[in-house]
Task: structure prediction
Amino acid sequence: MAILFALLVAFTSRWTVFEAESLVDNTNNRRPLLEEQRVPRGKIFANDGRTVLATNRGRGQGDDRTFTRVYPPGGLFSHAVGYSFLLNGRVALERSMNDDLTGEENEFASILSGIEDRTREGFDVVTNLDPEGQQAAVAGLGGRKGAVVAIEPQTGKVRAMVSIPEYDANRIPDDFEALNRDPNKPTLNRTTQEAYPPGSTFKVVTATAALDTGKVTPESIIDGSSPRTVSGVPLANSGGTDFGPITLTTALTNSVNTVFAQIGEDVGRDTLVEYMDRFGFNEDPKLDYPESQMIASGIRDASGGLVGGDGGFDVGRVAIGQGGAEGEIRATPLQMAQVAGTIANDGRLMKPRLTDKVLRKDGRVKERAEPDLQAQVMKESTAKALTEMMGRVVDEGTGTAAALSGIRVAGKSGTAEVGANREFTQPWFIAFAPIDAPRIAVAVTLERTTGQGGTVAAPIARQVMEALL
Amino acid sequence: MSTRARELFGLLPVSMLVAAGFASVLATRTEDVSEATLTYGAVFLGLCVMAHLFIRARLPYADPYMFPLVALLAAVGLVVIYRIDPELAREQAQWFVVGLLLFCGTILALGDHHVLERYRYTIAVAGIALLAMPRLPGIGEQVNGAFLAIKLGPIQFQPAEFAKLAIIVFLASYLRETGDILVRPRLRPLPFQTQLLMFGVPALLTVLAVLVLDLGAAGSVLLAVFVASLVAVIRERPSLKHFGPLLLIWGLAMLMLIFIRDLGSSLMFFGGFLALLYVATGRLSLIGVGSTMFLGGATFFAGNVSHVSDRIDTWLDTFSERRLVCPGTGEVTEFVNCQGYQIAQSLFAQADGGLFGTGLGRALLESSTGQTLIPAPHTDLIYAVITNEIGLFGAAGILGAYLLLTHRGFKTAMLANDGFSKLLAVGLTSVMALQVFVIVGGVTRVIPLTGVTLPFVSYGGSSIVANMVLLALLLIVSDHARSDRLRRGGLV
Result:
């Protein structure tokens, strides 16, 4: 009899302790979801601590009171903030910050809070997102498919994250299926989930590798004639212009393909990949964002796999932001904003951060995200040299459309040709300002359109920087 | 401390538990605080003290721990039922009063339990009739496929709860008489060749059967144990007629499976019988034969009686996600959300409880849309609610109380000095303990879930009344045993 009772205790222990976790995670167990519905999630705020990006609507009384999410700004912050609904799950910050938003505490703290106050409440989250920056980016893109990311170089704070088309998070429960089927992919966050050919903006990475390893200086004279044979295939400059022997600074100002292809070949695959790694390519960004909603930038082969230094890719064409059959360079807008931010921050790459702090209901700070160094990508002197070179791009080169009145801007344009017959372009612009004490770095790109980075993307970068300075 | 003082003292923790329990439930539902709820606790305790005074007067030597243990279990039951539905708790409290009245009535009417021996055949017939009643047209009711209840006007009634008492009384008296001739004294060792033949041939046959019939591992073990036990029994050369009761009761248990379609109560009765058989004969081999026959029979019927086989499917395959038309609602859904729903939700509720539980009154019984999360929380699944709210420790405490009660029952049997008393105490205790095993085992997925009540705790008039009578019988046996011992100057 005692054995039978021991068996009962053993099985009760099995369900309550040993297998409790798998039972709680069982998809047919709706208890955790129902439980969560009863907890008011924390609010999400913009960087001013006042603009509410996400809040709750309560329904019912007493024990039956449940809450659903409401997003006052509609679509403006949807890609950064995401959504959280009982039947649709959760994405973006609503997902990566879920533990804080649902008020999850460690065992000890939860016992204490159980004594103080019985009802569980989520913690509020204050983001780094700037409403004016977001609005400027949306206005700049003007409905065209594309993405804008703005980062504070010294801290890694993400001040703007915009992906067009956007979606209204409030409509998720009703339109979930339709939004996911939409061929324009409104639920795709183009800043982290899509990698595009970066075009000439990638020359900044190539230049970093060449300058930092001492292969060249900004004054080095390199042959800019066009066309030149690269990897056995002729390569031409934009518009076929033959520049002749020019300095590296002039080459960047005018985005001379043949010069950077030579530099790329000179630097070599291994060194270029080494510098890409330092910039954060070839791995998921270190953003406080769900891993499943980020992809790594890097050189990808035809099947989409990442190619390393021994991949035999066409280093000359990768160096100018293109590629060949063995691999093409692809970068997310977030990654290119980080490239600009690294140069602005004396070569130090900071981990990007969407959230600033987590607040308790009484306003005390539970957790604050401190600036966190991800990598020292290059020597400070290299960064200074590149800053000056990129300043010239905006002063007198391909990026003059990004110039701000009274504030000197550093930048680099890019225009990748896309489409089966190269009939479309992917215009880019990366920039930071003010040039001697940068406070903001941006990356702007438009998807499958026409026009040059310097004419299409640069004005948007200017508008966003203007709003954020 | 005197025996009765110990009993009164034992009610002290019960009173604290009742107070704490009701207070805790009240604290979580601030909206309907009423003083009436606290009177529940006070009235309950008053009743217990009165019952104690009654025992003091009529059964001064009875075991002092059994009644407080039962009061404790009933208190837990009352608190949990109150937490589920205050209206049900009121009804349960009424039934508890009826139970106490019958408890006193039994003690008054039955000064000496040996009287029962005289009416054993009447009692046996009554027991079988009670068991068969739910199959009678007009008053019988099929609940979840099993025939366990009858309905007389507004009163629903589970005759099996009383039948178990009748059958145990009958078996105890029958086995007291036949137990000693059921097996003969052990014989001198047989010559070596005969021994070899007796063990070798069946062993060989068993191996052959396993190979030819292609039995699984469980089947093979079952057959091996059966053959070995049978050989051991036959070695003692009992006459065939002494196998009678074993076969009879086995047949009865199998009939129960077919007619009542309930594996749980069938297991309960047969298990109680085997315990009695063991005490009466002291032969483990008989238990071997009996239990293998039961398991074999149950396995056979499991494949053939659809209700029983459904229960076993549900038990083994609880979380299956294959889709089918759910017989209850007619909707196409996953197995786990139809047949498996009850056990799956039971386990989810227990997982939610963890080590310490969510606290009384804080378990989710239904979703915000009113969908049941714990089906039958006040009867079959009350153990799941208990585990959810007071956790593994609380549930283990409840099981501990049952184990102590069982221990006191067996202790009573050991102190008793006549065969009938011993057998009666063992039988009543075993059947109560087995009932706990059947329902808690079902809820925790040790065995297939069947609808019997958790004695003294579950909501249900028949259950609480029948179990109070069971307690009365145990206390009467105990009073006799202990007063005899004291008279002869022994220690109790």
Notes: Strands of chain B lie at 140-143, 146-152, 155-157, 323-325, 332-334. The first strand of chain B starts at residue 140 and ends at 143.
